[in-house]
Amino acid sequence: MSHLKENLDLALELSREIVRLAEEKAWSEMEQLDRQRMQVLESVFSDAGLKVSNREVTASIQAVKELNDKAMEICADARVVVVADSKKIRLGREATAAYYKYDKSHFTNG
What is the pTM (predicted TM-score) of this model? Predict the structure, then answer.
């Protein structure tokens, strides 16, 4: 059971760090830790000790899930901002292109 506990503690630690990185928008570092956490969670769910009903195990898994949900919410919010920013950039690019088109035609006709 101690190996299971160690893995659950590590999964919790990694989950907390993932949330912190998500809040800082450190996407690549977050992705690396998420891959590491997935490996730890795979070992947790394949551990024979998990079959034993244990409130501490259940609480740890629930905490990992809640932290994951929080990280996903942060990422979803950030995605909305990125999409909005890219729309502004596209509109700016279109306005710039229109200006250059107007400017070019103005000088060639005048």
Answer: 0.67
CA angle 97, 98, 101 (to 5 degrees): 85
Q: Helix and strand tally (H, E) in the chain? A: 3, 0
**Which residue shows structure tokens 């590491």?**
36
Query: How many angstroms separate the CA atoms of 3 and 44, rounded?
Result: 9
Mapped onto helix, strand or coil, the DSSP state of residue 37 is helix
Domain boundaries, the chain: 2-81
Q: Can you give the C-alpha Rg of the chain in angstroms? A: 24
Mean pLDDT, each 10-residue run in order, the chain (110 residues): 85 96 92 94 82 78 94 89 77 75 63
Question: How far, CA to CA in Å, does 14 sit from each of 21, 33, 65, 101?
Answer: 10, 7, 12, 52
